Amino acid sequence: MKIAIASDHGGYDYKQELIPYIESLGHQVLDLGCHGPASVDYPDYGIPCAQAVARGEADRGVVICGTGIGISISANKVPGIRCALCTDPVMARLTREHNDANMLALGGGSVIDTAKAIGFGAGETFAQMRGSAANDPFTMARGAVRTATNHAG
């Protein structure tokens, strides 16, 4: 499966940590930026990612900004895109099962900050969920959310 991924500066660190994990599952990654932590506008990255999915250049898309809200709104402006902002595993599973979402939006700051605050590097967090990943980027990403939030308190 080919996964397009994009972020603004608020999701850059999370994107950089997700890419090798997605690749380790055997998926091809199309990284559409941003390419550094400097401040950028999320529509400049969310919309091209959504367009890549809509045109069939990627099977699914993942977009990340600080909260996931703005970039999901931008992605959903592209015809044919059903981008869901998911904050827990149930939401991620149900949006695929019931809404046929073809893109996933995540809040980069909250997930990574939570994982780091509880003593997990993102690589360790992702390693913990490999057993349930089922080779699906939505499952993979919701597992990251689950792992980070379950340990938060």
Number of helices: 7
Major sheet characteristics: 5 strands, parallel
Strand content range: 15-25%
What is the general shape? globular
Helix content: 40-55%
- What is the CA-CA span between the terminal residues? 35 Å
Q: What is the subunit arrangement here?
A: single chain
| Strand order, sheet with most strands | 2-1-3-5-4
Query: Residue-averaged pLDDT, rounded?
Result: 78
Q: How many β-strand stretches?
A: 5
The parts where pLDDT drops under 50 for at least 5 residues are 112-135, 142-153
Radius of gyration based on Cα positions: 14 Å
SSE run: EHEHEHEHEHHH
* Broad structural category: alpha/beta
Question: Topology of this structure?
Answer:
Layout: E1 2-7, H1 12-24, E2 28-31, H2 43-54, E3 60-65, H3 69-75, E4 83-85, H4 89-99, E5 103-107, H5 108-117, H6 122-129, H7 137-150
Parallel strand pairs: 1-2, 1-3, 3-5, 4-5
Helix pairs in contact: 1-5, 2-3, 4-7, 5-7, 6-7
Gist?
This protein is an alpha/beta fold and 153 residues long. It contains seven helices and five strands, in the order E-H-E-H-E-H-E-H-E-H-H-H.
Explain how this protein is built.
There is one protein chain. With 153 residues, this protein is an alpha/beta fold. Helices cover 49% and strands 16% of the residues. It has helices at residues 12-24, 43-54, 69-75, 89-99, 108-117, 122-129, 137-150; strands spanning 2-7, 28-31, 60-65, 83-85, 103-107. Strands 2-1-3-5-4 form a five-stranded parallel sheet, with helices on both faces. Strand 4 (83-85), helix 4 and strand 5 (103-107) form a beta-alpha-beta unit. Helix 5 crosses helix 7 and helix 6 (122-129) packs across helix 7. The longest helix is centred in the C-terminal third of the chain and has 14 residues, at 137-150. It is globular. The model is unreliable at 112-135 and 142-153 (pLDDT under 50).
